[in-house]
Amino acid sequence: MIVMIVVCVVASGTLNTQPAHASLREYKLKAAFLYNFVKFVKWPTAAFADTNTPIVIGVLGEDPFGVALEAIENKTIGGRQLVIKRYKGLQDLEPSHILFISSSERARLPQILVNLKGASVLTVGEMVQFAQSGGIINFTRRKNKIRLEINLDAAKRAGLKISSQLLKLAKVIKA
Amino acid sequence: MLAFRDVPIKRKLTLIIMLTSSVSLLLAGAGYVTYDLITFRRAMVRDLSTLAEIIGTNSRAALTFDDQSSAEETLASLSAERQIVSACLYMTDGTVFAKYRRDDVNKDLSPPAPQADSHRFEDGHLVLFQQIVLVGETIGTIYIQSDLSEMHARLKRYVSIGAIVLLVVSGVAFLLSSKFQRLISEPILHLAQTMRVVSDQEDYAIRAAKHSQDEIGFLIDGFNDMLAQIETRDTTLQEVNERLAQSEQEALAANQTKSTFLASMSHELRTPLNAIIGYSEMLQEEAEDLGQEDFIPDLQKIHAAGKHLLALINDILDLSKIEAGKMDLFLEDFDISSMAQDVVATIRPLVEKNANTVEVHTADDLGIMQADLTKVRQTLFNLLSNACKFTERGTITLAASRETVDGVAWLTFSVADTGIGMSPEQMGKLFQAFSQADASTASQYGGTGLGLVITQHFCQMMGGDITVESTVGQGSTFTIRLPAEVVDPKAAAAPQTEVLPTSAPVEGAATVLVIDDDPAVRDLMQRSLSKDGWHVAAVASGEEGLRLAKERRPVAIVLDVIMPGMDGWAVLTALKAEPDLADIPVVMQTIVDDKNMGYALGVSDYLIKPIDRERLIAILRKYRCEPPPCRVLVVEDEADTRDLLRRMLEKEGWTVTESVNGREALERVAENRPNLILLDLMMPEMDGFTFVEALRQQEAWRSIPVVVITAKDLTPDDRQRLNGSVERILQKGAYSREELLRQVRDQVMTHVRPGA
Fold this sequence. Notes:
A: alpha/beta, globular
C-alpha cells in the first residue's frame, strides 16, 4: 500500500515550466488531496446506504486529471472503496460524494450548484471565485504550492462537516 | 556499641524511641517518595504520550497536506509545556517534516531516527516516539523529548520537606520520649537507688516502692522479698550470735568452776591425808624413841595406807586435770644425772622390798634439759615403781642417753626389768585407764592403774613419746624419748634476755644478781646498788638468771615474782634445787608497773606442803639465831599442819608461837619479836601477803625472815591469785622508788656484807 506522501521539498517551478509535466504532477497532488479530503470531511449518515457503500468521486466536465486519478482509484478508505466516475455534463450527473467541477463548466457553475442544492456533495474546483460562488473547496496556487479555499457556509448547507484541521490549512471564504 | 550499652537508661530509652521514630519516618517517607516518583514518572510518560497524541493528531492535516509551516506552528504550541526540550515530526519515510526546540536550548539537536511507539529515559531526559495515524493509516511519527526538571524539582522538594519533617519529628519524639521514658526508667532508677541506700547503710528494713504490676513491679517484689530474707537471716544471725556468746560465757564459767573445783578438791583431799601421813610418821618416831616398838607395824600400815591414798588421789586429780585440759607445763632447767640419781634414791626402799637390785647407766654427756622437772621425775618414778612391783629378785636398770637428730637434741630414758613380762595382748591394754595388764595383777601387785596413762600424757605433752617391749616371763623395757628442750605450746614468747653491762668490776666487790623482765627495774637496781659498791649483773629471764647464778655465784639474788615464761617461784625452786645456789639469799620482789612501783615482798624462802622435814631443818639451820633458843612464829590456819610444825620445830629446839591468821600473827609479833616467821599464804581473814605487807611497815620488824609455806600444787590460777593478791596489795600502796630500793638494800645487807 502506498500512501501518497509528498516530499516536503519545494518543487518550485515545476508547475510553471512544462504544463504537461507540471500538470501531471499537479493533478497527482490534487488527486491525492481529493483522496485525503475524505479523511477530513464528514458526510451525513444518509449519504451512505451502508458501511460498504463505496465513496464516489465524480469529475464533472473535462477531466484534467487524466491518469492521475488512477493512483487513487479503487483505494479503500475506512473500509469504503473509492470509485471514480466521470460525467460529461449535468444531465449525466449521478449522486456522488465528492464532485470535482472542471474549469470547463465555469459558465454553467451556478446552475450546477443550484442543482446540487440539498445534496451532500463536496464540491471541489479550481476556478477563481469558485468558493465565493458557492463551491466548497477551491484549489489555488500560491508560491508554487497548492492552497485551499474553503466555503464553510456552503459546506454547512450541504450538511458536510469539515475537520478544523483542514480548515486550519485553508483560507476560509465567506460568501 | 559497647559505649551505647553503658549509657544511662533514661538516655537509652530516649535515644531508642527517637531512633525508632526517625527510622520509621525515613522508611515511610522513602517508601512514599519512591512510590510517588514512580507514579510521577508513569504520569509523565502518560502525559507526554497524550501530548504527543494531541500534537500528532493536530498535525495530521499538515502532514497529509504537506503544510510544513502549519506543522511547525502546531509543534510550537509545545512551548507551553516548559519541560519539552524538543519535538519532531517525521513523515512515513523517516524524513523530518517539522522540528521544535525550546527557546533556551541553543545547541542544534539532531533528531534521532524515528522508531516504533516507545519511550525511554535516557541522559536525564524522557523521549517518546509515537505514530500518527489517520483513518487506520500511519502517516508519520512524532518525537518529543522532555527533560526531568519537574521530577528533580519534586524530588528536591521531597527531600527538603522530609528533612524538615524529620527534624520536627525528632524534636517531638525527643520531647515525648523524655517524658514517657520515665514510666520505665523511674522505677528502675528508684530500685537502683534503694539498693545503694540499703548497701551503704546496711539497713535491711528498707523496701522499694512498687507502683506497677508489670515486670518491673515483679522485679521490685523480688528485691523486697530478698531484703526480707536478708533481714530475717540477719536477725536470726544476731540472735544466734547472742546465744553463742552466752553459751561461750556459760562454757567459760563452767570451765572456771571446773578449775576451781579441781584446785580446791586437790587441796581439800590432800589436807587430811597430810595429817594422816604426818602424824603416823611422827608417832612412829616417838614410838621408836619411847621403845614402844609394838605400835610401829600398825603405824607403818597407817602410813603406807595414807601414802597409797595420797598417790591415788594425786593420780586421779592429775588425770582429771589432763582430761580437762588443765595440765600445764612448768619448764625449768635441771641436771639430768642428778635428777636420775634422785629418783633412784627415792625408789630404793621399793626396790629392796622385792629383793631386787637397781642399776643406773647414765651417759656422761647428759647435761641439762629444759623440761617440767616434776613431770619427768613422776614419769621415771612411775616406770621404776612398776618395774619394782612386777619383778622379784631381779634387776632393774635405768639408762639415760642423749642424741642429736637433725639438729634437735633428744633424751632417751629406759627402764628395763627382769620381771614377769607381758603378752602382746596385755601390752595392748597397757595405756588404758584403770586397766592393769590383768585384773588379777591389781590385787596381787597393787597400784592405781593410772600411772602409765598419766605417764604417757606427760610424755606427749612434752613433745616426746613412750614405747614398750616385753617378753612373757623374761621382763619388760619401757623407753621414753623427750626433747632436750621442751617447748610449752601455751607459753608466751620468751622475753629477750639481755644482760646489762655490768659496772667495771671493782677489786674485791661482790656481785648481786638481778632477775627482772622490766628493763627499767634492772637499770634502776644497777645504778643504785652499784653506788653502794655492789657489782650488779642484771638479766631479764629466769633461765638467764640461773645460768648466770651458776657462773658468777652472786652473794645475793633479787628476783622478780611476776615474769613471763619462768616466773619467780619457779626460779626460786630451781635455785633451791642447786646445792651451790641454795644458800644464796633471794629477795623476791614484784613491781606492778613503772609508775606504781610497789612494795617489795621480801620473802627469804619457801616450803612446799606436805612439809619435808629435811627441808625444814635445813631452813631452820639457816636462820638460826645466836644464841639459842630461837623464837619462831607459825602463821597457819590449818590446825593439823600447825600442830605438826610445832612438834617438828620444838624437836629442833625452837620456841614456837602460833597464830591462826595474819591479824593474830601481827599481835604475836608485837608481843614478842620472833627470829623467824613461817607463813602460810592462803589464810582467811588476813592472808599471807597482807600480813607481810603489814609486817614490813614496821621498821623493827622489817628484818625478820619470812618463810612462806605454799601448797605443792600451785595451779597457774593459784599462782595468778597469789601474784594477783600481790598486785592488788601493791597497787594500794604508792611506794616510791627510794622506798623500794631501801627495802632491797636492807634485805641484801642483812644477809651479806659488802666486800665479803
